[in-house]
Amino acid sequence: MSVSNHAPELHPIEASALHARRERVFLVIAGLFLGTLAMLNILGILRFITFGEIPTEQWGPLPIAVAVGVLPYPVTFLCTDLISELYGRARANAVVWVGLLLNAWVLFILWIGGILPGFETIDATTGMLATDEAGRVPVFYEVRAFAFGATIASMAAYMMAQFTDVWMFHFWKKLTKGRHLWLRNNGSTLASQLIDTVAVVLITWWLGGFDAMMADKSSPGAFILMLIATGYVFKFLIALLDTIPFYFLVRRLSRYLEIDPNAEQRHLADPGPGDYR
Length: 277
Fold this sequence. Notes:
The structure is a single chain. The chain is built from 8 helices and 2 strands. It has helices at 17-43, 73-87, 89-115, 139-175, 181-206, 220-241, 243-256, 263-269; strands spanning 48-54, 62-67. It is flat. The protein is 63% helix and 5% strand. 26% of the residues are buried. With 277 residues, it is mainly alpha-helical. It has a two-stranded antiparallel sheet with strand order 1-2. Helix 4 packs antiparallel against helix 5 (181-206) and helix 5 runs antiparallel to helix 6 (220-241). The chain has one domain.
């Protein structure tokens, strides 16, 4: 590995210009992953985007809707697939763990931001926050209530889905001996997003997150199934579409970073002396 002519500009911990380049690209991908994760937990189910209704005799019109928080979520799977392909399974799992800590950090800030004293009026008779003429508490507390439920649901679903995505990505990579990039990209993402969609909708419903949106609260089953179906179809289509940028980025970045995406797979198949699996 040659030393760059600009070596004096490197930080002492950077072994070479190539090493620095690899770490900075990793930082961008991991930062996009973590930033998207934080954003979707705050947005959560604050608003639903509707694509029409399906008329039914038993339950009436069922909305075809996707929560705003779902919009950026497919990007997180693209990021973990890129990290898995270029940097290996250990780094992908490390980013997933950091994402879990980020979720906990969001919950902590929401919790402490709500218990510290502020300018809100407290009802002297109930000791609770006073509501306005429309019967609503201050906006922060409404967002806090929604985000609490969304983040708790997201943490549980996130753990199941992201680790499934990383595991299945490398399962397909090992099975195909590093071939068929499209298979491990789609095979891992489509399965993990199904787990995520079912888990996050069921947990959010269990926490009462959809109560205000259900027209018929006596039969939530159809409403929940519709949210799962529409949410997954949206993620399914985005997952298929992101195959194009995934192929493009893997090929460009593997050359730019001078990384052989299949080196990890060959090492596991033929470990050197003293290595272990």
